[in-house]
Each structure stands twice: as C-alpha cells, then as structure tokens.
Amino acid sequence: MPLVLWIGMRITGERKVGPMVLVGVVGWVVAVGNGIDTIDDRPGAILPLESLALVVGVTALASLIRRTRARS
C-alpha cells in the first residue's frame, strides 16, 4: 500500500512526498497490526473502516504540514 501511495503521488506531479509516505507507511502498519484479527476471522473481510479512515486522515495531515513548511 505505501508503494501505491508513492506511485500515485508521483503520477499526480507531487514532489518531496517522503514525509507523507513515511507517515502513510507507519499508519498502514499500525492499522493492519490492529485489524489483523478481524481479517483473519472471516474470509473476504476488510480492515475496519474507522482505522482506514484514520490512516487516510493522518496521511492527509502530513501532506498539509509539508505544504505549509514549503511556503515559509
């Protein structure tokens, strides 16, 4: 998933996406680590939507911090 994030950001023309990808990697690992019991119990199960939304939100916030620092 982090590789998909990095590729997507590069395709859209974003530069210096390292911090955002790093936050996305950590968030993804934590979300999967916390939700692995849920997806192991049932075939075809997905991670809880709350944890996925949290990963997306934190990664988006990392993007805003990067942009704010770049403008200064």
Explain what the structure shows.
The N and C termini lie far apart (31 Å). The chain has 72 residues and is mainly α. The protein is elongated. The model has no long low-confidence stretch (mean pLDDT 77). The longest helix has 24 residues, at 18-41. The chain has 3 helices and no strands. Helix 1 crosses helix 2 and helix 2 (18-41) packs antiparallel against helix 3.
Beta-strand residue fraction: under 5%
**Order of helices and strands, N to C?**
HHH
Helix content: over 70%
Radius of gyration from the alpha-carbon trace, in angstroms: 14 Å
Largest sheet report: none
Count of helical stretches: 3
Q: Structural class of the secondary elements?
A: mainly alpha
Question: How many angstroms separate the termini?
Answer: 31 Å
Features:
72 residues, mainly alpha, 3 helices, 79% helix, 0% strand, elongated
Give the structure's gist in a few sentences.
By secondary structure, the protein is mostly helical. 79% of the residues lie in helices and 0% in strands.
Topology:
Layout: H1 2-11, H2 18-41, H3 49-71
